[in-house]
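Sharing in case it's useful to others searching the archive later.

Someone asked me privately for the predicted structure of Phosphoenolpyruvate carboxylase, so I'm posting the question and my answer publicly. Question first, with the sequence:
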Amino acid sequence: MNEKYSALRSNVSMLGHLLGNTIKDAHGEPLLDKVEAIRKLSKSARAGNQDDREKLIDELQNLPDDELLPVARAFSQFLNLTNIAEQYHTVSRHCEEHICSPDSIDTLFGKLSNSDISQFDSIQAVRDLNIELVLTAHPTEIARRTMIHKLVQINKCLSKLELSELSPSERQRVEQRLEQLIAQAWHSDVIRQQRPTPLDEAKWGFAVVENSLWQAVPEFLRQFDEKLTTHLGEGLPIDASPVKFSSWMGGDRDGNPFVTSSVTREVMLLSRWKAADLYLSDIQELVSELSMVKCNDQVRELAGDEHEPYRAILKDLRAKLTNTRDVLDAQIKGLSVPNFGIIDHVDQLWDPLYACYQSLHECGMGIIADGLLLDVLRRIKSFGVHLVRLDIRQESTRHSDVISELTRHLGLGDYDQWSEQDKVAFLVRELASKRPLLPRDWQPSPDVQEVIETCKAIAEQPREALGAYVISMARTASDVLAVHLLLKEAGCPFRMDVCPLFETLEDLNNAESVIKQLLSIDWYRGFIQNFQMVMIGYSDSAKDAGVMAAGWAQYRAMEALVDVCEEAGVELTLFHGRGGSIGRGGAPAHAALLSQPPRSLKGGLRVTEQGEMIRFKLGLPEVAVNSLSLYTSAILEANLLPPPAPKQDWRELMDVLSEVSCEAYRNVVRGNEEFVPYFRAATPELELGKLPLGSRPAKRNPKGGVESLRAIPWIFAWSQNRLLLPAWLGAGEAIQFSIDKGHAQQLEDMCREWPFFSTRLGMLEMVFTKTNIGIAEYYDQRLTDKSLWPMGQKLRDQLQEDIKAVLNVENSAHLMEQDPWGAEAIRLRNIYVEPLNMLQAELLYRTRQQDEPSPMLEEALMVTIAGIATGMRNTG
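And my answer, the predicted structure tokens:
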């Protein structure tokens, strides 16, 4: 056993033992023996024992129907517990140096001290810090809210067990609590019975804020402040808010018919209610803490003659927050609303508390002020009175449909048939006009009415409640202007950031000309007040062209947009639509940010945190503090010590790699008529649609082929059968093509000197480590028609060739040499993922033989899907 990982392994082993006790209590010794036998066979098969592999397959193919579900649940639950142990290990006191790298912010200041960056520039970069994490409810988050709460509790128990001074009876009590939690999880539904509503998704997001971020943000800012004081001699200003949060949950209507204007309104009320509720708990605690009597004149004025002035101010706030919660509660439930004075602006919270803070400092009680009161002030700056700001996202054609229906009604012709030039001229004229465009007697169709109602819902809100209006599948300047016009017609009293999302390869390549055109319009330049946000789509571009071509198109689009906006004197914020998986732009955050073009983070960072990655990166307070530190250090480093711009010959070679990889990818995905039937048979793609994960349908068009699939189920399906095709197809082929053309040395130079390229290869290595050729072949043999076997064999052969090509460029003997902890984490889970894979193939085989599969078989299949997703970690 590798001693490096002993603390982690002992936790995994203890949790596994406690799970075994639960299984034995629930299903008896024979089932536990069977699970244990399968685990041992899997371990032996992983080590290369072919006989045990055959025995494992035989054991799983002969499981009686009534044992399929408990066996699937056993392995799925074990993976959940392994993930918890691993996540906990990265923040535990036993975390060895090779895993817990030195603090990222301290490391950055070490680099800065050896550079010629002045202290002034460093302080300015800190002041300019602007990190906005956008929580999105993509349908990859398997864990239900009740489960997430149990995971947090298990984490607390692991933390207690680390304390060496525990008495035997204390240790026994903690282990007993752990076993209770594991039993609770075992006897609860792992899978939701119904698809969540957008409201459920929003509540899940609020739970992440309440259980983790509410603690993590002030703790992170406290640590960051101490480091800044140490390294720069100057801490964070008290009103600094380098980190903010937005959400798509309840605002993202792209292809989701269940997100309506009334849902959006309700989610915004719930968000405010949750904020008031959380502040109320904080204020209640401060009431009991701040019983001091000495104060300055300002606090005396606010408190009147009260003997305990701070308490008087806090009790007044407590009453207002209670009223706020009651009023919002009545609005949410549609009851008559009490006529109370409520808190609806951030200053109503900030001003009295900041006055208390200053007074305590002035009266020699700074140590008290810098405790909970400072944390609450920092929460107010990060979360405001709305908790999270809501983004609105809608597909571009939904806006042009509104204007088309309107122009036809007004007898102006069909807007959709006009040239882009005519559309822009019409939109600019109407935007500059003082008269309303929407006629009073107009009865639009339901779809059009819904878009107008959404714009009205935006207009009713204060600006600080909202993030950006994101236009998916944006292609032209008129797509952006159309949204501005609809918001104007809805009576929106403020300037909303309307953010085009460029998603396909072609749209990324055209992004520069679209923004250039917009910035050349006088009305537009005046209106945006020199601030432009643009969203870069990672998932759809990769689905369209493969990861290598998409990655280069994203890089070039960002470079071009930075140049265009700098030239025009416009501040640009790039919004990154990254998913968790590599096929959707996912990568370790630090590496991904440092591999972006120089100057692309000057306007701050706005990035989506999606699905289950929210839980892995932000779900526990300690882990969230680490994640926020990583983001902060990466942005400061990117802005103060930017990566080199690529040399001209690197660019030329990237153009070739992009072209060759795109062609190779599309030849398979679009050009081979056997591909779609193979995809449907060899993966659980069709069955995924039944899994009640997210609130939105799996397809934009239920009758279409691969192109109509959403990027998430496309990636998700391939991660289940362990081929992970979208995350590598085309990339290795392009690299091998360039080696054959004599560019090996150049590729090695790029790998060594250019973060963009080395990060690509690192991402490919991680993907290759997670693939499993034997499992993918087993799915083919069990599930696909023999006529499709050559197709699968060809793809697996290609995968092996691609692995060799990448290792060749990196001069590595085996995958993930530079990341032994990552490789160990994958290896640790594989023993439990592989039986689930084989069990899933068996369940797919059995359910596809039956017209009406039994609910138990279907549930067992869903559990394997969830379990493999947990084991693979970044599913979508």
